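Hi R.,

Here's the chain you asked about this morning:
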Amino acid sequence: MRDPLSVLTEAFTSFVLGKVETTRLPVRTSTGQAQAVYLPTAAPGLGDSGVIIGREVYSGKGYVYDPFQLYGQQLPAPHWLVLGESGNGKSALEKTYVLRQLRFRDRQVVVLDAQGEDGVGEWNLIAQELGITPIRLDPMVANDAGIRLNPLDPAITTTGQLALLRTIIEVAMGHGLDERSGFALKVAHAHVNEHITERQPILTDIVERLRHPEAESAEAMNVDIDDVRAWGLDVALVLDRLVDGDLRGMFDGPTTVGIDLDAPLIVFDLSHIDRNSIAMPILMAIVGVWLEHTWIRPDRKKRIFLVEEAWHIINSPFVAQLFQRLLKFGRRLGLSFVAVVHHLSDVVDGAAAKEAAAILKMASTRTVYAQKADEARHTGGVLGLPRWAVEIIPTLTPGIAVWDVNGNVQVVKHLITERERPLVYTDRAMTESSGPADPELEWETEQRALLRERQLDDSAQSTVA
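And here is the predicted structure, written out as tokens:
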């Protein structure tokens, strides 16, 4: 029982000075002891329907991703951007993702394989495992032995053929066609399609008609025939590279018989093409349009178009516009475009910055592997990543990446099965392995501790506030 004098004193003090509250002394403790007070939390996953990628680093939950399952309310667009420096696991992720997608019956994949060694592309082992022969485009192969894709293939609409010819010429020239050159190309193309019916028209026919235009073409516009010939001269010289120049043997004849566009996996092996030459964007433009008109069909199949070294596409205004249209068109037919690049600065600071921004905007999924701190800050700013994600990108070890799926941001460790390992880790790709187990374990432990400390700091700041 309390002392009556103490009770009276407390009542008098409260009446005169107001209520006096007891102040508790702060408690000093360690993170390890306090973690029981602040229970760990994790953001919700993406569901359990689709392709398993690996597991979330912080929660340990399995991470499942499939753009076709998520498309709609959770994912406004099925397109995906993969970023990161070499040696951190992009190659392994791409390959296992494709292998796992192909286990579904209604999936089909096209890969533009721009890397390789020992004379074959990086996807050669996977193609062999699935019993598929890659479509190897090589200007150095003898004319009779090489594989050809015909830009004037009858499977491509007349409008598509003309658009493709313009894109090829504009990419090679580095600027758009003026009206006069465009007119010369149009009348030459129309004449070839009208008069060559017993076989597939080829580029040689276009070049010949540009050099020797028909009189009626000039009369229709009330101009001199020599003017029409002059307008088409530069166009003819550009196309001549594909016919009798350094790019011959790939597009200067009828489409090679036997290319199976119904195979579950179609690999275009571009590893013999100089990545830094003008040939690469021209090649990708031709393949893109050719696929648009011959491969993508309203048959309810879900298709994946994976492009390595995608900066060749996005960094050229004319090719970027072509693929931008393909992406918009493909969404209605179940197409998921996967672009793989090393640095975002290669894209957004290039000649096609406007087109690149539009393509990036359509990519609702972004996966970022380790980058240097400056590049990580730039990437985070462009993609709108949260600060905590930007801070850990430079610390990521091989096989671990930040995934942003329409604002759902997770740190994910990619897992590879023993059966996939020999197909995924080619000699070159060994530099992109998941790395030793111990460093990954140490990194995950550090990151979990860091996350707990941040949770404690946030809680402490909220209490003080």
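One quick note: The longest strand covers residues 107-113.

Cheers,
M.
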